[in-house]
Amino acid sequence: MLASFDAVLLARIQFAFTVSFHFLFPAFTIGLASYLAVLNGLWLWTKEHKYLDLFRYWVKIFALAFAMGVVSGIVMSYQFGTNWSVFSDRAGPVIGAPMAYEVLSAFFLEAGFLGIMLFGRERVGPALHMTATLAVAFGTFFSAFWIISVNSWMQTPAGFSVDPDTGQFLPENFWEIIFNPSFPYRLAHTVTAAYLTTAFIVGGVAAFHLLRRRRRGERASEATRTMFSMAMWMAAIVAPVQIGLGDLHGLNTLEHQPQKVMAMEGHYESHPDGAPLYLFGIPNDEAQRLDYAVGIPNLSSLILKHDFDAPLAGLDTIPDDEQPPVGIVFWSFRIMVALGFAMLGVGLWSLWARWRGHLFEAPWLHRAALAMAPSGLFAVIAGWITTEVGRQPYTVYGMLRTGESAAPLDAAAVGTSLVAFVLIYFTVFGAGTFYILRLMSRPPIFDEPRLKDAPEGPIRTAGITPAAEEAERRPQAVHQPGE
């Protein structure tokens, strides 16, 4: 049955599935690592125990999410050599170095200091422990730096030449490769999205416990209230910043990838006298029109050109074989934007409640925050779909088509591995996610228990040796003074 499918389509579905699963964890841990650094700094500065309790509460969740992010990310690198070997051969001379730097610098930084952050507070002292926590936070950001740089180069390639004999992309200017035209905008937009994702997960967890305590007629702990307050501050401040960054990113995309913006806006036809902003419609690629369109006249021109009457080209100026699938891009973009404005609404609502003095006694705000807890995860996936599907039909935009990038594999082989990935991912990561949710279902308590390592020293993989058993049975000699 699998042999009847297209191998390239199955390979795309497999990579999309694995990267979507993976992206959820870094989108959470990038922000959570910085949040832990802030909590640890506040504890050292103020000595208020609630910050230490919150640190200990969230560091357990961070450890699990970080581990699942690492494991799910390893799989994707193998797919470059299996399903996408032609792409790896052609683009490897350019993207290989940044991906190696991500491992050698960012990941080693995270992994090297993670153990100190998790278990070293009582062993290395507060200064070194704080340094380790900051190193982990910086490592998560630095990892995003390299990965987004590679992906941005695939969107807006620069600093390379093409070998006429092998067709390989050869690096000519390393700085132009790393800091390609779309990289600064995509990095700012993605990292800010990660901070918002974390803020709404933290806020949703706090709101859950505020509602539970209210239902029981009890007052929530100081740690829970502080957690909700910090999350809502983050939402109120960062959400409008993210919308502004999204606007800048959109303008950059219009300059370098105009057909992606045309698909996002649903502009099949050119608009010489100002383009409408379509709020709703059903893209019809075959007829090259937006059916049942509902839009606001000239608003798209105002947003994209900052001029009501500015002309905007449509997909009628793009050859059919270079157009992205409009339906997926059109709707994923609207989901992302709708969630972004919903986040802004919750942030502004929290400011109003804070000003009125009932931030912790506003059950409808708490219900909204709880409902919005996973909104950041949905938004980053919708944004990723918009970006990646909007780049089609290219893997390296304008240079290497997706159909030319795939390995010469049979559809049955790709489909079988896809089915295996789906079953294993939902089993393994589903169990991990369930355990994280169980941890979140328990509120932070005073004197939150810390992560504990082996109290009797390192774990012996081979068990207790006979010599060790004899040493444990032998009575300790009692030394007298002067001996």
From TrEMBL:
<feature type="transmembrane region" description="Helical">
    <location>
        <begin position="20"/>
        <end position="45"/>
    </location>
</feature>
<feature type="transmembrane region" description="Helical">
    <location>
        <begin position="223"/>
        <end position="245"/>
    </location>
</feature>
<dbReference type="GO" id="GO:0020037">
    <property type="term" value="F:heme binding"/>
</dbReference>
<dbReference type="Pfam" id="PF01654">
    <property type="entry name" value="Cyt_bd_oxida_I"/>
</dbReference>
<dbReference type="GO" id="GO:0046872">
    <property type="term" value="F:metal ion binding"/>
</dbReference>
<dbReference type="GO" id="GO:0070069">
    <property type="term" value="C:cytochrome complex"/>
</dbReference>
<feature type="transmembrane region" description="Helical">
    <location>
        <begin position="328"/>
        <end position="352"/>
    </location>
</feature>
<feature type="transmembrane region" description="Helical">
    <location>
        <begin position="127"/>
        <end position="148"/>
    </location>
</feature>
<dbReference type="GO" id="GO:0019646">
    <property type="term" value="P:aerobic electron transport chain"/>
</dbReference>
<feature type="region of interest" description="Disordered">
    <location>
        <begin position="450"/>
        <end position="483"/>
    </location>
</feature>
<keyword id="KW-0479">Metal-binding</keyword>
<feature type="transmembrane region" description="Helical">
    <location>
        <begin position="100"/>
        <end position="120"/>
    </location>
</feature>
<dbReference type="InterPro" id="IPR002585">
    <property type="entry name" value="Cyt-d_ubiquinol_oxidase_su_1"/>
</dbReference>
<protein>
    <submittedName>
        <fullName>Cytochrome bd-I ubiquinol oxidase subunit 1 apoprotein</fullName>
    </submittedName>
</protein>
<feature type="transmembrane region" description="Helical">
    <location>
        <begin position="418"/>
        <end position="437"/>
    </location>
</feature>
<dbReference type="GO" id="GO:0009055">
    <property type="term" value="F:electron transfer activity"/>
</dbReference>
<feature type="transmembrane region" description="Helical">
    <location>
        <begin position="192"/>
        <end position="211"/>
    </location>
</feature>
<keyword id="KW-0813">Transport</keyword>
<keyword id="KW-0812">Transmembrane</keyword>
<keyword id="KW-0408">Iron</keyword>
<feature type="transmembrane region" description="Helical">
    <location>
        <begin position="57"/>
        <end position="80"/>
    </location>
</feature>
<dbReference type="GO" id="GO:0005886">
    <property type="term" value="C:plasma membrane"/>
</dbReference>
<keyword id="KW-0472">Membrane</keyword>
<feature type="transmembrane region" description="Helical">
    <location>
        <begin position="364"/>
        <end position="385"/>
    </location>
</feature>
<comment type="similarity">
    <text>Belongs to the cytochrome ubiquinol oxidase subunit 1 family.</text>
</comment>
<keyword id="KW-1003">Cell membrane</keyword>
<dbReference type="GO" id="GO:0016682">
    <property type="term" value="F:oxidoreductase activity, acting on diphenols and related substances as donors, oxygen as acceptor"/>
</dbReference>
<keyword id="KW-0349">Heme</keyword>
<keyword id="KW-1133">Transmembrane helix</keyword>
<keyword id="KW-0249">Electron transport</keyword>
